[in-house]
Amino acid sequence: MKEPGSPFGKNIFAAGFVSFLMDVSSEMVYPLAPLFLTVVLGASMSTVGLIEGSAESLASLLRVFSGWLSDKLGKRKALMVFGYGLATLSRPIIALAAGWRQVFAARLVDRFGKGVRTAPRDAIIIESVEEKYLARAFSFHRAMDTLGAAVGPALAFLLLKYLDNDYRKIFWISMVPGVMAVVTIALFITEKKKGPAEAKLPKLTLGCFGWNVRFFIFIAAIFALGNSSDAFLILKAQRTGITTALIPIVYLTFNLVYAFSAVPAGIAADRFGRRRVILIGFILFAFVYAGFARASTPAAIWALFAVYGVFMGLTEGVQKAFLATIIPLEFKATAFGVYSTAIGVAMFPASVIGGWLWAHVSPAATFYYGSATAALSAVLFAVLV
Fold this sequence. Notes:
Radius of gyration: 20 Å
Number of strands: 0
CATH topology of the largest domain: Growth Hormone, Chain: A
CATH superfamily of the largest domain: MFS general substrate transporter like domains
Structural class: mainly alpha
Shape: globular
Strand content: under 5%
Number of helices: 15
C-alpha cells in the first residue's frame, strides 16, 4: 500500500533488506561455484560456461513472463515469496551435488527464482511510494542490493579460511540469509489489495506500450549491447599492473562507491529530473569506458573503477523510476519484465562482441566499442524520449 510522505516506509525498507539478504546468500555461492565445479567435481571450464550462460539466460527470459503473470493475477507478494524461496531451496542441491549436473540444476533453480521475483518486486516498490520519491526509493533498493553483493563474497572468504575450504558447508550456511529474506517478505511486506486486472492485458511485445516506453527500452537495450561483462574491466586492471591480491579490493571499492552514491543520486533525480540524471549517466559511462581504453597506470584504474561506481549509482535505480512514470499503472509489472528481459538478452551478445574485439582487434577496442554505444544511447535518449 502507498506510504505517503516518505519513500522509506515499511515496504521500501523491507524490500531493500530482502535484496540485501538474498544477495549475501547468492554471493556466498556464486564466486565459489566455478571453483567447486573445477576443483572438487573436476568439471571443465566449458562446462562452467555452459552452466552460467544457461542460468543467466533463463533468468532474463523469465522476467517478462513473471511480470505479465503478476499483472494478470493482481498478485505481487506471492510471486516474491515463491521466487526468493525457490532460490533459497537451490542451496541444498548444490551442497549435496556429486557431479556438475546437480550444480547445473541448482543454478537453474536459483536463476528461475530470480526471474520470477524481479518484476513483481519492482511493481511493489512502485505501489509503495509516491511518484515524487520513486528515484530515491529504487536507488535505496539498489544500494541495499549492492551492499549484499559486497558482504556475501567477504563472508564466503572468511568462512573458507575457518572451515578449511569446505565449500559444501558454506553452501549450507548460505541458506540462512535466504530463509531470513523469505520470512521478511511474509511478515513485513504489505501488498496492495486488488483483484486480477480487468483491463485487456498486453501481449508480451513492445507494441502494446506507448512510444515513450518502446523508445526507452530500445535505447536501454542498445546501451546494454556495449556494456560487456565486468570481467573485461578486471582483466584490464591486471594488465595495467594491479596485483591479483588487490583485484578483489578494487572491485569492492567499486561496489561500495556504487552503494553509497545510489541514494544521493536518487534524491538528485527526484529533485532535478530523472531524465537529466539518466542522460548524465550515459555520458559518464562513455567517458569512463574511453578512459579504460587509454588507462596505463594502476592509479588510473583505481580512479576509473570509483567513477564507474558513481555511474552505476546514477543509473540503475533512476532508470527504473523513470520507466515507472511512463507505463500504464495496470501493466507496471509486465513493462518491468519486458525491460529487464530486453537488457538481459542484449548483455549476452555484448560480452561475446567484447571478447571478440579483445582477442582479434585489441583490448582497447572492447572499451571504445562500449563508449561508442553509450554515446549513441545518450544521443537517442536526448532526441527520442
